């Protein structure tokens, strides 16, 4: 469904593929990651695309999670701001490699997908 650009459209799965160990216990739930949800393609709907305002909101949220408050660099990954309060280079006192953060000279305001 993902390759076709479809989503379940609010409908539940038609069947569940379970691992061989849990197939012998149909009354119990499968706790292993080897299960797959099968959906009916006839009931599927096209995926919704986010609006520009939704993308702006998501970008601002990700910018808040990936920008160091001390050095003002925006990294490509989320920082441990709740536990450390800053990025690892600021916390441990070393210079970060340039391939881990955005190297724009102007402050990064948005990185929209559209």
Overview of the molecule:
By secondary structure, this protein is α+β, with helices and mostly antiparallel strands. It contains two helices and four strands; from the N terminus they run ββββαα. It has helices spanning 52-66, 88-92; strands spanning 6-7, 15-17, 36-38, 45-46. The strands form two sheets. Strands 1-4 form a two-stranded antiparallel ribbon. Strands 2-3 form a two-stranded antiparallel ribbon. The protein starts with 5 loop residues before the first strand and ends in a 22-residue tail after the last helix.
List the helices and strands and how they pair.
Blueprint: E1 6-7, E2 15-17, E3 36-38, E4 45-46, H1 52-66, H2 88-92
Antiparallel strand pairs: 1-4, 2-3
Features:
114 residues; alpha+beta; two-stranded antiparallel ribbon; 2 helices
Strand content: 5-15%
Largest sheet: 2 strands, antiparallel
- Count of discrete alpha- or pi-helical segments spanning 4 or more residues: 2
What overall geometry do the principal axes of the alpha carbons give? elongated
Work out the number of β strands. Answer: 4
Share of helix among residues?
10-25%
Estimate the mean pLDDT confidence: 83
Listing every helix as H and every strand as E from the N terminus to the C terminus, the arrangement reads: EEEEHH
Structural class: alpha+beta
CA radius of gyration is: 22 Å
Name the quaternary structure. Answer: single chain
Strand order of the largest sheet: 1-4
Which residues form runs of ≥5 with pLDDT under 50? Answer: none
Distance between termini?
22 Å
